[in-house]
Amino acid sequence: MVGLSLMTLAAHAEEPLARFGLLADPQYTDHDPEIGRNYREGKNITKATLERFNKEEKLDFVCNLGDIVDGRIKEELPEVVEVFKASKFPVKHTIGNHDMKKQSDEDLQKAFGMKNFNYMFKVGSVRFIVIHSLEISYMRPKGSPERAEAEAYMEAHKERNLKKYNGMLSSAGKRWLDEQLTAADAAGEHVIVMTHVPLYDKAASKSCVFWDVDDMFKLVDAHPCLKAWLSGHEHKGGMAVRNGVLHKTVKGLCEMKEPTGVIVNVYRDRIELKGFGEETDYTFKF
User: Fold this and answer.
1) pTM
2) Could you say which of 92, 150, 220, 286 would form a disulfide bridge with 63 (CB–CB 3.0 to 4.6 Å)?
3) Each residue of 147-202: pLDDT tens digit?
4) Where are the domains of the chain?
């Protein structure tokens, strides 16, 4: 009994390798509610969600999974970025399709304080990879090489009924992701990918995933270091496990009735999700 009690205490005392918060899709704009989205409350519910994160003793960071605005009015994006300054923890950003509607790459870099939309950072032995899931998409400016590539890809895959609000990484982006995963494999690190668009339809829907899912699965399946793919975009949220990887889509704030988010604890052998608001808890064991 004593041994069992000590084991129980040791388990409770285990510190996570990394601990962070997730929120997604406030999609703020000064507009009346429409199609289930409470647009005008976007800033308020973001602020309240950040206040909930601020009650935690420690988070390594909070990640915005994209679409902080609806994209109707250019000046609204900096307004919502300002709301994130209320976080007492560092904030990481991913780029959503609605964020791109009125903003150039330079606008987004300035607003979010980002040099690159694909970037990596570490918390101890956990490597976090943030990728721009709309690098090749219809959100890119007309006449740009990225937009031309998106148009050509959709034309070549008409039978798949691809959606213009999704997209994919560029060839260079895929090479960079593969290099990051290869380095993490060699270093024995756990990897968490964070991006706007989901990869696995069972964690979202068939209408809200990367265009080139088959190519992406071939890429990530080669790397045992990958433990989780975290995204937004599909407001109803979702979760599924594929090939030893947790795919979690965080529910969109624009459709929530209360502050909603997820606190993620990464351990050596598992990931624990602690939901609040309209999110739920889940433990994923490697």
Assistant:
1) 0.94
2) 92
3) 999 999 999 999 999 999 999 999 999 999 999 999 999 999 999 999 999 999 99
4) 15-285
